[in-house]
């Protein structure tokens, strides 16, 4: 078995044996055969790497093909034609109404999904956009991973925004040309704004201690300089001698100087003072608003020929959309940070219950009596409260960088109206109330369960209603990652949908139908984090369903949908001009900000006697997993060692102090939690519970799901996830910790050269609980899966997966290869010679590190214990000679060669398998 094809054929043969022996595990058996080849020398790590490289290539092609299918067609002319086809035959007023408000707000975030290396990302995107289609062109040669820093993430976000802006410009020019042709006497009144873009990279403080206020200011200045340069480039392409070019180029240069000053260390008061004074001083090139430039471009366009006029108005539209930056910016803080800040302003605040009516009354008075305070960079520098620093930073940005662009203040874990009122108080106190949109985030179990009452109470506040009217919108944010982790992806989506409906009711009940509802749905690119794989229509409807949209439409409320494109996974949609144009064109065709208010009610919402119980049963099943020590222990059995580093933010909560053995699922962030489920072979938070929820009422539930558009959408998601899942793989990981397996492996005299190592592992694992944990979890999953298959047998498969068995075999081979590599590492870990305890770390501790895949820590300890080189007299330049030491000072080169380096290389190969499996699933996490 020296080729992938042979391994796949062997796995198929082993799978047939499960008909005779149901408990037989073909994935683990293949891993045992591969392990024996590695230990006998029939296969070495170089050979394993060749197999992995071929499977990597297949997975990258799968990833590119999926991306292409989602946004197809990708040819620019085809998308120009598609856009022309969706313009309709409306009159000028209807045309303006359709295109002068955003169909979608898109936020480019730095969620840790930078799974692919830059070379791989470029290859996948290029293949997806290629005229020849996807093939070996998706296979990048280098899997070398760069260190992912905040600066790297910010640069990637800016590159994605650049492509998005260019694609929007092309669409805007198309709209303007159509308007010019159809309404030659009126078209100059048309100001298209089909999309708005934003980012929170460098502004998101939730769970971060590594982002200082000066980081945010520096990024905002760099973004301003970059955008000014792009505006100038666009204007220069229209007219190389245009009089506004001097204004833009001078402003670009001045802003770049300010950005450079804020990029330097500002720990010293003198350095900060110089940077701040340079930014705040009056300067002839200082530009704080684009309004005069937009007016001048529009005036000039009215007197120009159609081609020049379209170009000038396209530039004006870009300025109107983005302002003096690459897009809008979103600051984000945690509710606790706001609570800590506001308590200092309330009498008896340390002990005051902020959810009480007394606290609300005090906050109302505080807001009503607040007088805006002047602030400067010194106030910002000495402020210790994270939340207050955010408002001070926003005040400086609005005063000295961009006076026009609105700023979002996202509040995580927001579960009571007092939190929003606290944010409004600080916004008023620092004079930014008219430019900042405060947006509560709903993603925890409590927030989703009680969010309706929260919205009723918040929107009943006179102060909040006045604020919403001033801003022209009510903003909320829903999170699919944590929600999906806590209650399961299907219950989370249905709970979020219900919350959106409650928002429509609350706005109508409180007379807020004259403002928009900006609904920010933050989801990733994986099935476990809110991205539906069925196509772009499903992708847009899953987080904001037609039912929810109709609730707003029937109440007469305009909606502004907003979604995220998260990290490396999300940025692929904007990795090149072809994909960016295709992505925005699909959105233009689907028009997520609109709906048919008169459409008949979906049976899923009419038959709540069935659907509500179905939802609750899935939620309860998922909750049992989350609270189960069996599930928690299995998911954390390897810590986070199965995963690559995919972002600058830590993957475990910063308060984590407990050992891996007692790690709680709540200590792991949502993305790595979902990523671990992929790597273990079964997306529990997508699939589990649906089969059990239908038990006892299966035919009626099947009838409802088949008749309902929303129900069929749920089924498509579960089918897609289930097509890639393998409970046998979950069970296979448990066998690594099975003491009986290691004791029996050499029982009949085979593999005598590793008999001692196997015996050592068997003895070490006698009391280990992980084998039993994985078996119990696999049993629970199997029982539920049997019920799911009975349900799915009653439902048509609307979108059968292409090459399903071939893809499953590839994933199975990848899993078997990794299991073999893990066995390779385990055997060498227990074979390392004994060494003295140091820094409270023993040999047993190092073995446990390897078993939980804390490989870097383990290797550091082993290299400390077994250095390959000792200090030698030749290292020193001394005049006095010495005959001592009289023996050679040899290091432990053999131990490095035989044990330490092979473990390191095997682990690196294992992480390449991680990337390949994630690509087969379509995304990281």
Question: Can you summarize this structure?
Answer:
Helices cover 59% and strands 6% of the residues. It is built from 41 helices and 8 strands. α20 (480-487) packs across α29 (670-680) and α39 (843-851) packs antiparallel against α40 (855-865).
What does this structure look like?
By secondary structure, this protein is mainly α. The protein contains 41 helices and 8 strands. It has an 8-stranded parallel beta barrel, surrounded by 9 helices. The longest helix is centred in the first third of the chain and has 33 residues, at 150-182. The two termini are 31 Å apart. The relative contact order is 0.11.
Relevant terms:
41 helices; mainly alpha; globular; 925 residues; 8 strands; eight-stranded parallel β-barrel
What fraction of the residues are assigned to beta strands by DSSP?
5-15%
Count of strand segments: 8
Helical proportion, percent range: 55-70%
Euclidean distance between termini CA atoms: 31 Å
Task: Give me the Rg, rounded.
Answer: 30 Å
Shape: globular
Order of the strands making up the biggest sheet = 1-2-3-4-5-6-7-8
From the helix content, strand content and strand pairing, which structural class follows?
mainly alpha
Number of helices: 41
Summed over residues and divided by their number, the pLDDT gives a mean of 94
The major beta sheet can be summarized as: 8 strands, parallel, barrel
Q: Spans of 5+ residues with little confidence (pLDDT < 50)?
A: 653-658
């Amino acid at each position: 078995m020296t080729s992938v094809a042979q391994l796949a054929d062997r796995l198929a043969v082993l799978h047939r044996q499960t008909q005779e022996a149901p408990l037989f595990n073909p994935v683990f058996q293949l891993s045992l055969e591969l392990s024996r080849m590695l230990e006998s020398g029939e296969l070495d790590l170089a050979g394993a790497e060749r197999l992995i490289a071929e499977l990597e290539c297949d997975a990258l092609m799968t990833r590119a093909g999926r991306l292409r299918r989602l946004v197809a067609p990708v040819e620019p002319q085809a998308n120009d034609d598609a856009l022309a086809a969706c313009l309709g035959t409306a009159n000028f007023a209807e045309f303006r109404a359709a295109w002068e408000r955003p169909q979608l707000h898109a936020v480019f975030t730095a969620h840790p999904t930078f799974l692919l290396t830059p070379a791989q990302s470029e290859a996948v995107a290029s293949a997806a956009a290629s005229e020849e289609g996807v093939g070996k062109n998706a296979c990048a040669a280098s899997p070398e991973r760069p260190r992912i820093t905040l600066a790297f993430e910010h640069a990637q976000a800016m590159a994605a925004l650049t492509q998005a802006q260019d694609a929007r410009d092309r669409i805007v020019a198309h709209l303007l040309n159509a308007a010019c042709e159809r309404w030659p006497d009126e078209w100059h009144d048309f100001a298209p704004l089909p999309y708005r873009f934003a980012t929170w990279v460098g502004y998101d403080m939730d769970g971060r201690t590594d982002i200082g206020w000066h980081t945010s200011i520096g990024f905002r200045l760099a973004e301003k300089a970059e955008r000014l340069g792009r505006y100038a480039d666009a204007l220069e392409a229209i007219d190389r001698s245009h009089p506004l070019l001097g204004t833009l180029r001078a402003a670009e240069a001045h802003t770049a100087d300010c950005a450079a000053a804020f990029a330097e260390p500002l720990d010293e008061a003198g350095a900060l003072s110089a940077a701040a004074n340079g930014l705040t001083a009056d300067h002839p090139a200082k530009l704080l608003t684009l309004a005069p430039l937009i007016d001048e471009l529009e005036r000039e366009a009215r007197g120009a020929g159609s081609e020049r006029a379209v170009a000038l108005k396209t530039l004006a539209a870009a300025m109107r959309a983005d302002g003096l930056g690459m897009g809008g910016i979103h600051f984000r803080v945690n509710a606790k940070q706001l609570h800590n800040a506001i308590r200092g302003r309330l009498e008896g605040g340390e002990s005051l219950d902020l959810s009480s009516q007394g606290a609300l009354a005090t906050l109302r008075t505080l807001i009503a009596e607040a007088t805006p305070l002047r602030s400067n960079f010194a106030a910002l520098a000495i402020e210790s409260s994270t939340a207050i620093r955010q408002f001070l930073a926003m005040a400086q940005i609005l005063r000295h960088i961009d006076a026009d662009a609105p700023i979002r203040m996202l509040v995580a874990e927001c579960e009571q109206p007092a939190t929003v009122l606290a944010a409004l108080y600080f916004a008023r106190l620092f004079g930014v109330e008219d430019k900042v949109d405060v947006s509560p985030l709903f993603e925890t179990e409590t927030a989703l369960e009680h969010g309706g009452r929260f919205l009723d109470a918040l929107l009943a506040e006179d102060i909040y209603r006045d604020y919403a009217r001033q801003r022209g919108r009510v903003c909320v944010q829903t999170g699919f990652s944590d929600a999906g982790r806590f209650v399961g992806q299907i219950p989370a989506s249905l709970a979020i949908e219900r919350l959106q409906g409650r928002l429509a009711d609350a706005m109508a009940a409180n007379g807020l139908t004259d403002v928009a509802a900006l609904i920010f749905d933050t989801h990733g690119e994986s099935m476990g984090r809110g991205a539906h794989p069925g196509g772009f229509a499903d992708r847009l409807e899953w987080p904001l369903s037609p039912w929810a949209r109709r609730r707003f439409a029937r109440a007469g409320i305009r909606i502004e949908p907003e979604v995220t494109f998260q990290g490396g996974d999300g940025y692929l949609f904007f990795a090149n001009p072809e994909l960016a144009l295709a992505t925005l064109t699909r959105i233009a065709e689907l028009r997520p900000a609109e709906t048919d208010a008169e459409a008949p009610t979906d049976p899923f919402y009419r038959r709540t006697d069935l659907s509500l119980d179905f939802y609750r049963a899935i939620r309860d099943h998922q909750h049992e997993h989350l609270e189960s020590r069996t599930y928690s222990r299995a998911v954390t059995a390897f810590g986070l060692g199965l995963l690559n580093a995919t972002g600058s933010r830590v993957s475990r909560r910063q308060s984590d102090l407990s050992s891996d053995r007692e790690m709680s699922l709540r200590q792991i962030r949502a993305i790595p939690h979902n990523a671990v489920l992929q790597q273990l072979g079964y997306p529990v938070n997508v699939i589990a519970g649906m089969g059990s929820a239908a038990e006892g009422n299966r035919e009626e539930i099947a009838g409802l799901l088949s008749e309902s558009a929303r129900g069929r959408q749920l089924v498509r998601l579960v089918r897609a996830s289930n097509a890639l899942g393998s409970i046998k793989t979950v069970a296979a990981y448990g066998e690594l910790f099975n003491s009986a397996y290691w004791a029996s492996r050499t029982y009949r005299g085979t593999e005598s050269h590793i008999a001692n190592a196997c015996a050592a592992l068997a003895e070490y694992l006698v009391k280990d609980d992980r084998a039993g944990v994985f078996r119990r979890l696999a049993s629970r999953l199997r029982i539920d899966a049997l019920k799911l298959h009975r349900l799915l047998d009653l439902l048509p498969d609307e979108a059968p997966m292409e090459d399903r068995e071939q893809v499953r075999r590839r994933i199975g081979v990848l899993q078997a290869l990794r299991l073999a590599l893990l066995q390779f590492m385990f055997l060498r870990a227990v074979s390392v010679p004994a060494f003295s305890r140091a820094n409270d770390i023993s040999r047993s501790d190092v073995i446990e590190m390897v078993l939980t895949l804390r490989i870097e820590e383990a290797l550091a300890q082993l290299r400390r214990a077994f250095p390959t080189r000792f200090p030698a007299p030749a290292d020193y330049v001394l005049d006095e000679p010495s005959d001592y030491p009289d023996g050679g000072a040899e290091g432990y080169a053999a131990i490095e060669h035989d044990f330490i380096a092979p473990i390191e290389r095997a682990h690196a190969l294992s992480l390449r398998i991680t990337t390949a499996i994630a690509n087969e699933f379509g995304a990281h996490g």
